[in-house]
Design a protein that fits this description.
This protein is α/β, with parallel strands linked by helices. The protein folds into 2 domains: about 150 residues, Rossmann fold (3-Layer(aba) Sandwich), CATH 3.40.50.300; about 240 residues, no CATH class. The chain is built from 15 helices and 12 strands. The N and C termini lie far apart (about 50 Å). The model has no long low-confidence stretch (mean pLDDT about 95).
Length: about 400
């Protein structure tokens, strides 16, 4: 038992080191929406969005005795030769009340493990996080009746402003944005010049780690992309080395061409794959937070089908993956990214985006007019390059205030 305790000290040391360095000056919006009293909580999200920080913040702020909680990451090599259930049992028998499990997808049969922890240790609260690629299915442990799942995207423009210490404000509902955008924009514009800050956010600002990697941010993003495709994807889906290579090639091809209505036959031929495998790869890139797939409402109800338009997930990825960045594409990508977190978005017959089956949007520069969507009820322009709008002409940056 002495050797086992000595081995556990490695985990404890890692936990203490991470806890000591986590900062409490900024919290993601999701932090306040989570009901931390629930016994089983799942936090999903793309790599680099701050899931680890959120869990460590919860411990640091709410446990006078931090021995009651334990943070572990299942990508730690320690778990290559140790059983997680032994660790859980040790923590529980030493009066531990909470366990925070990071990178859960790196553990075989993780859903069964989480279920067993939940069932066998009834007084233990569990928070676990994993890639947005995670498939939480009834066939593997059936966690659906036990846990609450939260999704953590990257920073919204609103959160970025707070993170930078520039401006702090509450979320704006889409209804308030559409009807009160002039007053809201006037208040914000009176505090600082928003457009230069917005331009910085589009290049570096979606992933919270930009602050620690300003000069190497593009390189760090490429490393995140590689980790998602090379490590997370095969850890969650049963894919071959060949499929991983083709998925990476698919992403690079699309990065140079987005947004587009893909000629899928040509794309599949270029990466030497078939339709079914190609669609699975597209779906994996979307689930991994690397692509945004836009379809008409009709197609969206059919499951795994060809998207009508393909975007990179966010503008930061565009600047990291290609030198051929089109400003029109950046604008559309930003709009799609910020709205898709809390709203249903489809490709309409006219205009760029249909939101919640009600609101029609055309996205463009400050001089764009209503020609394409004129005489359509509930139609709006989301315009870049303006601080304050007028009637149905709304500044593009304001759509970053919605979450």
């Amino acid at each position: 038992m002495a050797n086992e305790i000595e081995n556990l000290e490695e985990i404890q040391r890692s936990y203490r080191n991470k806890l000591a360095t986590v900062k409490l000056d900024f919290h993601r919006e999701l932090y306040y929406r989570i009901d931390w009293n629930d016994r089983l909580i799942c936090i999903k999200g793309p790599k680099g969005t701050g899931k680890t920080t959120m869990m460590l913040q919860r411990i640091k702020e709410n446990f006078k005795d931090t021995n009651k909680a334990l943070y572990i990451s299942l990508d730690n090599l320690w778990f290559a030769s140790h059983n997680i259930m032994d660790l859980i049992d040790y923590h529980y028998s030493h009066e531990g009340t909470h366990i925070f499990i990071d990178e859960v997808h790196y553990y075989d049969n993780w859903q069964t493990i989480i279920k067993n922890i939940y069932d066998d240790y009834p007084n233990l609260n569990i928070v676990y996080s994993g890639s947005s690629l995670l498939r939480i299915e009834k066939s593997q442990g059936d966690l659906s009746r036990r846990h609450v799942v939260y999704n953590l995207p990257g920073l919204s423009f609103r959160e970025y402003l707070e993170f930078e210490g520039i401006y702090k404000t509450e979320q704006v509902s889409i209804d308030d944005l559409l009807t009160k955008h002039v007053a809201i924009a006037e208040e914000i514009d009176s505090q600082f010049k928003v457009l230069p800050v917005f331009e910085k956010y589009l290049r570096q600002g979606y992933y919270p780690f930009y602050k620690e990697a300003r000069n190497s941010y593009g390189l760090r993003l490429q490393q995140v992309i590689n980790q998602v495709i090379e490590n997370d994807y095969p850890a969650i889906d049963d894919v071959s080395v060949s499929t991983i290579r083709k998925t990476k090639k698919m992403l690079m091809i699309l990065a140079e061409k987005v947004p587009q209505t893909p000629v899928m036959v040509d794309l599949y031929r270029e990466i030497d794959t078939d339709r079914n495998q190609g669609l699975k790869m597209l779906n994996a890139l979307e689930r991994g937070g690397l692509l945004g797939l836009l379809s008409s409402e009709t197609k969206s109800l059919k499951g795994l089908t060809r998207p009508d338009k393909v975007y990179l997930n966010n503008p930061n990825l565009m600047y990291a993956l290609t030198s051929n960045v089109n400003i029109g594409t950046v604008r559309e990508t930003f709009f799609f990214n910020q709205l898709s977190y809390n709203h249903r978005i489809f490709l309409p017959k006219k205009g760029d985006f249909l939101v919640d089956d009600v609101y029609l949007f055309e996205v463009g520069g400050r001089n764009k007019g209503f020609e394409q969507i004129k005489d359509i009820e509930n139609s709006f322009l989301a315009l870049d390059g303006i601080e304050i709008g007028h009637h149905n002409r709304i500044p593009l940056w304001m759509f970053g205030m919605i979450y």
